[in-house]
Design brief:
single chain, about 80 residues, 3 helices, mainly alpha
Length: about 80
């Protein structure tokens, strides 16, 4: 059980960082596109949604770490 808790926290942190970086790149690309179509707006929305999802995963991870039972399990993790 301890290994799975450590594994899940590592995956949550990695996926959160991935979503935030990917969202930032998508927003940057959408700002650089000057097309007369709706594509830059759609890309911008997708980028902001990606950043929001990344922050939401990070917030959920932080709230889970505040639970005493989870924090005790994670103290036993080997880094």
């Amino acid at each position: 059980m301890i290994k799975s808790a450590c594994y899940l926290m590592k995956k949550a942190a990695a996926s959160s960082a991935t979503f935030i970086v990917l969202g930032g790149i998508i927003v940057l690309i959408s700002q650089l596109l000057n097309l007369g179509t709706v594509a830059p707006a759609i890309l911008s929305y997708l980028g902001f949604i990606s950043v929001f999802v990344g922050l939401l995963i990070m917030l959920i991870t932080l709230l889970a770490l505040m639970l005493p039972k989870v924090s005790q399990r994670l103290e036993q993790c080997q880094h």
